[in-house]
Amino acid sequence: MSTHIGAAAGDIAPLVLMPGDPRRATWIAETFLDGAKCYSEVRGMFGYTGTWNGQPVSVQGSGMGQPSLAIYVNELFRDYDVQSIIRVGSCGALSERLAIRDLVIASGACTDSSMNRIAFEGFDYAPVADFGLLRDAAAAAERHGGAHVGLMFSSDSFYPARPELMTRMVEHGVLAVEMEASALYTLAARYGRRALTICTVSDLVVTGEATTAEERERSFGTMVEIALEAGLS
User: Between 3.30.70.20, 2.40.50.140, 3.40.50.1580, 1.10.10.10, what CATH number should domain 15-231 receive?
Assistant: First the structure.
C-alpha cells in the first residue's frame, strides 16, 4: 500500500490510463470499463480498475503539473508493478495547423521544468514516448480520423510570466502545450516501463478559442479509445 494511492496489492492493472482531472478518471471508468471498482479516493484523486474487452485496465487521476503526476507515477511503477501508463489529457494548440478537439500524440516532450536538470546535474535529458505505444496509437488514430504526432511542451506554469518565449518552441516544431508529459516519459525510462501521452486540444493559444470545463471533462472519448486500443494491442 503506497502513501498517496493506498490501494492493496493486485488492485491495479498493468495498464493505467492517467487523466489529470480525477473527475475525468471517474467518467472514463464509468463510460469505458466493465465492472469498474474504485481502489482509491485518497486526497480526492480517484483510481478505478475494470476491464475493457475482457482485459484489466486501471484509470488513475494525476492532478495538474509534473510534481503532482510524478507522485502517482512513481508509486504506480514502484509499488504496484504497473507496466504501461498512457496519459489522456488536454492541451493548448500552439500551431495554427491544429483545431479544437484535434488529437496530439506526443513523440517527445520539451519542458521548462527544473526537475530533469536537477536529476541529470545540468544536462538536458530528452524524454520520449515508448515507440511501441506510439506506433500502435498512431495506427489506432488513423482508424478514428487521424492525429498529429510530434513534440509537446510540458510547462510548469499554466500562466507563464513570459508567454512570448513559446514562439521559439513553435519555430522548432512543438505542436502544443500541456503540463505533465516530460515527467511521465522520464520516470518511465527510469523504471524501464512504457509511457505515452495522448491529448485532445482544448484551446487554441493563438486565437483564444476554448472548450468549457464540462466539455474537457466528458467529451474527449476518442483519445480514450485510442489509448485502450494501443495499450492492449
Answer: 3.40.50.1580
